[in-house]
Amino acid sequence: MAAGFQTIDQILHADGVALARIADTCGTPCYVYSSSQLDQNVEGLKSAMRRALPASDQPLIAFACKANSNLGILHHMAGLGLGADVVSGGEMIRAQAAGIDPARIIFSGVGKTDEDIEQALRAHIAQINIESAPELERVTAIAQHIGITARIAFRLNPDVDAQTHAKITTGKEDNKFGLAAQDIAPLYRHAVQRRFVDVLGLSVHIGSQLTSLEPFREAFSKTAAFARQLVADGLPLRSLDLGGGLGIVYDREQAPCLDGYASLIRELILPLGVKIILEPGRLLVGNAGLLLTRVTYIKKTSTRQYLVLDAGMNDLVRPALYDAWHEIRPVVDNATNNELYDVVGPVCETGDTFARDRALPPLQAGTLLAIMNAGAYGFSMSSRYNARPLPAEVMTRNGHFRVIRQRENVRDILKEETIPAW
Ligand code: LLP
């Protein structure tokens, strides 16, 4: 278990706060984030980079906001000196509202709208990553129209298999992301000659939850080789954005070694003498969050035993969407795991299943459980499916907790809708 969460007298705590106290005050389901664990995760990455790279070449760490874009979390990241990788106008506004310096904001994604682009230019963000020829045209046209220079990088699709879940693989030739090197070369040459366009370099991101360093090696080698070719052709190259993707331990998988990752950067990227950008998401927040939930019913059939929780796939969709495995722990853990339960939510789909045949102690209705490693792509992917209000979010620090998002109230949501008076 991550150090931000502790078992004290058999009771699960977050930064010294008993989870039952949070459940009593805020209700369930509720996301709980340990700020000390965030600190530790960020420091873990920074120190690996410090060990591998000279002080003058430390990377810009742009936290991938899609993993968790709560203002409290983003503000905490800003305080740790991080920038942000955003993929929508909404995330850009969140990052800025949280105090992240636009000079440290990178804008990625295949479908930026005109509004997104203009907003990014007016905010003078660090870099827009270009994913297609028509997008380059659009960015160039808007930049010239409003007279603000667009700092851009081209996203390379290196055709590398990230060896992760198909739905989160982004660097294969047949994925919608980025451009092949041979398609970037003429666009790059053309873009450097355009007014109001400043071409900074390349970006690459091959997928998420990578557990092996080999795909990174392959992607970084290909990126470096292409970068060298551009420089040899007399083109400017000042930055390389290496994306995110570092995996964490959910079950028994091996997490990639950060020193090994940093060494790859030293070996393959440092010699190019460019600014290095990283876009980690999951690595920084994944193990710092849990979803606190209560058992509503124990339901027994002739073949199975179900734990029906008050959290559902609308609160945490990863198991339903990717068959993702999340550890589930009783908040009070004082018995052996000698029962097998199917752990399900209340949503009306069989996919609303967190775990099948999970070994847990004998439990009762009302018991509090924690679904672990839910800090990344947990709340940020939640929905109101089945008219379920979005859960609360809480942050802990040194024995204290603060609500960083109120639980939604269905009545407030109804106010956003209108019955047409035909
Ligand atoms: N940069 C870009 C351009 C990305 O598309 C992503 C994630 C990241 C950085 C951050 O990747 P990370 O370091 O978190 O692996 N919802 C899925 C994960 C989707 C990842 C999408 N892109 C999940 O729950 O597993």
UniProtKB/TrEMBL annotation:
Coiled coil: none
N6-(pyridoxal phosphate)lysine carried by residues: 66
Orn/DAP/Arg decarboxylase 2 C-terminal domain segment(s): 30-375
NCBIfam families, A to Z: lysA
SUPFAM superfamilies cross-referenced by the UniProt entry: Alanine racemase C-terminal domain-like, PLP-binding barrel
Source species of the chain: Micavibrio aeruginosavorus
Catalytic activity: meso-2,6-diaminopimelate + H(+) = L-lysine + CO2
Domain Orn/DAP/Arg decarboxylase 2 N-terminal: 48-285
MF terms (GO), sorted A to Z: diaminopimelate decarboxylase activity; pyridoxal phosphate binding
Known function: Specifically catalyzes the decarboxylation of meso-diaminopimelate (meso-DAP) to L-lysine.
Gene Ontology biological-process annotations: lysine biosynthetic process via diaminopimelate
Keywords assigned: Amino-acid biosynthesis, Decarboxylase, Lyase, Lysine biosynthesis, Pyridoxal phosphate
Protein name as annotated: Diaminopimelate decarboxylase
InterPro entries: Ala_racemase/Decarboxylase_C, DAP_deCOOHase_LysA, De-COase2_C, De-COase2_N, De-COase2_pyr-phos_BS, Orn/DAP/Arg_de-COase, PLP-binding_barrel
Recorded superkingdom: Bacteria
E.C. no: 4.1.1.20
Pathways per UniProt: Amino-acid biosynthesis; L-lysine biosynthesis via DAP pathway; L-lysine from DL-2,6-diaminopimelate: step 1/1
The protein's assembly and partners: Homodimer.
Protein family (similarity comment): Belongs to the Orn/Lys/Arg decarboxylase class-II family. LysA subfamily.
Cofactor annotation: pyridoxal 5'-phosphate
Active site: 348
Binding site for pyridoxal 5'-phosphate: 245, 279-282, 377
Binding positions (substrate): 282, 318, 322, 349, 377
Broadest EC class assigned to this enzyme: lyase
